[in-house]
Amino acid sequence: MQDLIIARQNLPANIEELSKFVLIGNDKLQAVRAEISAIKKLGLAKEVHEQKLREGQDVAEMVTLAKMRMGELLKEIPKATTNHKKQDLEIDRGFDFLTEKKIEVEEPEIKPKGEVIKEIGFTQKQVEQLQKMANNPDAVHSAMAKARERGDIVSQSSVMKEIQENKRREKADKQENLRAENSAKIEELATPLDAQGLFQTIVIDPPWDWGDEGDFNQFGRAKPEYHTMPLEEIKNLPVEKIADDNCHLYLWVTNRSLPKAFELVTAWKFRYITCLTWIKPSIGMGNYFRGNTEQVIFAVKGSQPLKRHDVGTSFSAPRGKSHSEKPAEFYKMVESCSYAPFIDIFGRKEREGWTVWGENG
User: Fold this and answer.
1) d(CA 21, CA 256)
2) Residue 107: which pLDDT band, with cuts at 50, 70 and 90?
3) pLDDT tens string 54-78
4) Range list of β-strands (E), the chain
5) Helix 46-76 vs helix 113-120: angle between axes, to the nearest 10 degrees?
6) What pLDDT sits at residue 77?
7) Residue 82 clears pLDDT 50, i.e. is over it
8) What percent of the chain has pLDDT over 70?
9) Would you give the distance in Å from CA 221 to the centre of its chain?
């Protein structure tokens, strides 16, 4: 770090000279990269390669520091002024002690940013990147250090990638702190349905009333013993209210009731993403085809991503001991893909790390 501080002190002081420094440095870096490539092809001594690599690293880091300094200076330039003079500039006016009069000093002309950019020959996109570098010095230094560690030369793309990754980490840390705060708030509530935007994952297994689906005795031998609810009553559950601005919804539904599930997704202000399928080990009841699958509608509110991207849309698991009991494998999948705080509405059993509400048990 001390070497970088010294290197930065040796950089040109103004934008025009810095831009020339960057352009010359880029040309030199391109030549060094070509030499390194030639050294590899010719199979020259390891010492020769390492010496040339260090030269390339030094040049690349100086260019990177120069770009960051340009970004700092560009940030200070106003986009435009009425008379091309900086309005708030403090002028050091001299004083003539012989005449006892102030010496008037003409205010220096300040060019607007657009004109400066045009003169140095950089594009607007390049300028935006320079200013991002100026705003994220830790990420710039980290990108240079990582390049050294892996025996590489830092590049503009690797710097921008590090800045983006830093932003992602900062956002993730902020979200994690928010989740912890929300979990603490939930513990203080009389009922979890009093929550106002606190849950980031909602699992719900509604007690569907199938009497409106047109078939006589659709339940058959599988008729549940718990209280069922008509669709409008389920819609009125405060799912939208308890959901965080960024939230995952897992809505259990039988194949026959899928149309009603999509109504709920819309009513609760989520957007449908996909359908997960539980494949059961044997066929069950059914007036037409015998069911051996059950569906979970996966919907999202806001822009909550998954923790992982290697999970398919089907899973196999044995049936539970009681009617409508959901497999433990499902909850493990949810915990690996989605974020706390978790709530299981109409859940059948208590689970560590979950809030459970309802009377399906």
Assistant:
1) 70
2) low
3) 999 999 999 999 999 999 999 888 8
4) 94-96, 101-103, 199-204, 243-253, 271-279, 293-301, 314-316, 342-345, 354-357
5) 150
6) 85
7) no
8) 83
9) 48
pLDDT at 221: 45
Pairing of strands 354-357, 342-345: parallel
Query: What is residue 251's DSSP assignment?
Result: E
Rounded to whole angstroms, the Cα distance separating 176 from 116 reads 42
Give the confidence band of 219 by pLDDT, cuts at 50, 70, 90.
very low
The answer to whether the CB of 357 falls within 8 A of the CB of 343 is yes
Q: Which of 329, 331, 361 is nearest to 348 (CA)?
A: 361
| Per-residue pLDDT at 225 | 57
User: Which residues, in sequence order, are CB contacts of 338 under 8 Å at separation 6+?
Assistant: 200, 201, 248, 250, 304, 306, 307
Q: What local confidence, expressed as pLDDT, does residue 78 receive?
A: 81
Contact 355, 344 (CB under 8 A): yes
Q: What is the rounded average pLDDT of the residues 321-327? A: 78
Task: Report residue 248: phi and psi, to 5°.
Answer: -105, 140
Strand positions, DSSP E, 162-254: 199-204, 243-253
3-state secondary structure 117-170: HHHHCCCHHHHHHHHHHHHCHHHHHHHHHHHHHCCCCCCHHHHHHHHHHHHHHH
**Inter-residue contact 68 to 130 (CB < 8 Å):** yes
Token output for 304: 């909550």
Cis peptide before 341 (omega within 30 of 0): yes
Task: Identify the helix (H) or strand (E) that includes residue 54.
Answer: helix 46-76
For residue 105, the one-letter residue type is V
Question: Which position has the token pair 């102030």?
Answer: 102
How many CB atoms neighbour CB 293 within 10 A? Answer: 14
CA 15 – CA 7 distance, rounded (Å): 17
Q: What is the pTM of this model?
A: 0.68
CA 211 to CA 38: how far, in whole Å?
78
